[in-house]
Specification:
about 280 residues; mainly beta; Jelly Rolls; eight-stranded mixed beta sheet
């Protein structure tokens, strides 16, 4: 199964971080690096604990729609290694939202979304949100919508989302595996979260189809040195993205190790990136 590693959005995060963090806020909250695990270990989670964590993050609606809990993925694949080329986009900050931290704004012919870089300010301990399934027009093109977290150089990544072309929910751990979890349909409403469970120091990965009431939830032991989060829709088989119904993220939030759940625009991060899809010329 393919994976791009957040597309170009986190490339922008990486390009900016080297220069921006020279003047970032003092790392008073991140002086002690959290424990690091270099292996990936699945851990069972009780239904009661899963519901408690989902309720805490996504609300009672998500718990009420938790019908069939998927315990076995449809397919498991070794992750595909992708070589990323760094590019320098314009870095002049601009203001598009009421933000408490600097915003950087870009356009792209292949992707759209938000990215948060908290390096030097917080450890990222989760990300969550709601989004919709909107299958792109044929001929099909590889087209994904996902929520993910990563370390500063993307060598460690946890990603959960929907393949909008194959109509399937998936889970990805960089360097370990990619799993196709369950099938979805166009116009389904989804919610998802990645969350570092403080009781177990394991990562909860949860994704749910609110329309069909299928869900997947499991905890994994993995590195906790995470500083970036992203909510993104993109294609990586060549742009521009073909016409499709709008895809919208709502209630997108991330977790700061010292300040809890935060909006994308929170000052608990160093900065965030807003990237919008630019329509092809003549399209």
């Amino acid at each position: 199964m393919k994976r791009l590693i957040f597309g170009g959005l986190l490339i922008c995060l990486l390009v900016l971080s080297s220069s921006f963090l020279a003047t970032a806020k003092a790392a008073v909250h991140t002086s002690a690096q959290p424990g690091v695990q270099t292996t990936l270990t699945p851990h069972p989670i009780s239904l009661a604990r899963l519901k408690a964590l989902v309720r805490q993050t996504l609300g009672q609606q998500a718990v009420d729609h938790m019908g069939h809990l998927v315990t076995q993925p449809l397919a498991t694949h070794a992750p595909t290694s992708v070589s990323l080329s760094f590019h320098q986009a314009g870095t002049a900050p601009t203001s598009h939202l009421q933000a408490n931290t600097p915003e950087y704004f870009y356009t792209s012919s292949t992707e759209a979304g938000y990215g948060v870089n908290a390096e030097g300010v917080s450890w990222v301990q989760g990300g969550a949100g709601y989004f919709n399934v909107a299958r792109p027009a044929l001929p099909a093109q590889v087209f994904d919508t996902e929520i993910g977290v990563t370390n500063s150089n993307q060598s460690a990544q946890i990603i959960v989302g929907v393949d909008q072309t194959d109509l399937a929910a998936y889970l990805y751990f960089n360097g370990w595996f990619s799993e196709r979890l369950f099938s979805v349909s166009a116009n389904d409403q989804m919610d998802a979260e990645i969350y570092l469970d403080g009781n177990t120091n394991q990562w909860l990965v949860f994704i749910e189809d609110l329309t069909t009431r299928r869900a997947f939830g499991q905890e994994f032991g993995y590195t906790t040195s995470i500083v970036q989060a992203a909510w993104v829709t993109y294609t990586y088989t060549g742009g521009p993205v073909r016409p499709t119904n709008p895809i919208t993220f709502t209630s997108a939030r991330w977790v700061s190790n010292w300040d809890g759940w935060q909006p994308i625009t929170s000052s608990a991060a160093a900065y965030y990136i807003h990237q919008i899809l630019q329509a092809p010329k003549g399209g």
